[in-house]
Every structure is written in structure tokens, then in C-alpha cells.
Design a protein that fits this description.
single chain, mainly beta, 1 helix, 53% strand
Length: 116
């Protein structure tokens, strides 16, 4: 596993490491000190998009989220996020994500990240 290099500091550094990655899909390990709230899961998905950041000096900002659905109780402190790069237009990147615990899908949604 490769450590995810993002500028966040504890206690807001949720996305820890890249489990696997290809051109459009990444699996990222995330963890929390307590079971997370839904906004914390969404932020961890946004942080997971950093797996696709080739330029370490570039910063990303969450500018849109939609179709967020919770499918299971949020009761654990460690999850895996499958994040898929669906489309990009200049400095905007559109992702879909699945938050998983083992093989159970906990939460799904989509995000737009703006790079600066």
C-alpha cells in the first residue's frame, strides 16, 4: 500500500493509503477515530480522489456532490473507498464513489473536484 499524500492534518486526515490503482479506479483505505458521520464519509471520498493527483503542488476543492445514498448503518471506523474517475474537463474532475466495509456497500455518490 502506498501512503496517500494529501495536505490534511489529523483529525481531518481520513484517507490513509492507496490499496490499488489503475488509470480510472482507485481503492483507498480510510479510517476514523470514531464511527464517522455522513459528511465525514463524503470528505473521505473527496480526499480519496487525491489518488489521481500526479502534481503534488496541486490542490483540490470539493465543489459539488450529488446522489449520496446510505445503504447500511455507519458504525465502523475503517472502510475502503472505491473511487472512479468518470470524466474530466480542464481542472474539473467528476468521480463516483462507493464506501465499503468488507464486501458490503455502505454509501455511494458522486463528486466534482476543482483543481487549482
Amino acid at each position: 500500500m502506498k501512503k496517500l499524500n494529501i495536505p490534511h492534518q489529523e483529525p481531518l486526515h481520513f484517507a490513509k493509503s492507496i490499496v490499488s490503482k489503475n488509470a480510472h479506479t482507485a481503492l483507498v483505505s480510510v479510517s476514523f477515530s470514531t464511527p464517522p458521520t455522513l459528511p465525514m464519509l463524503i470528505e473521505s471520498a473527496a480526499q480519496s480522489s487525491g489518488a489521481f493527483n500526479i502534481d503534488a503542488s496541486c490542490e483540490g476543492f470539493l465543489v459539488m456532490m450529488k446522489d449520496i445514498h446510505v445503504h447500511q448503518d455507519i458504525k465502523y471506523t475503517e472502510y475502503t473507498i472505491e473511487i472512479i474517475l468518470q470524466n474530466e474537463l480542464e481542472k474539473l474532475k467528476y468521480f463516483t464513489f462507493k464506501v465499503k466495509k468488507d464486501k458490503q456497500v455502505i454509501c455511494t455518490g458522486s463528486l466534482v473536484i476543482s483543481l487549482s
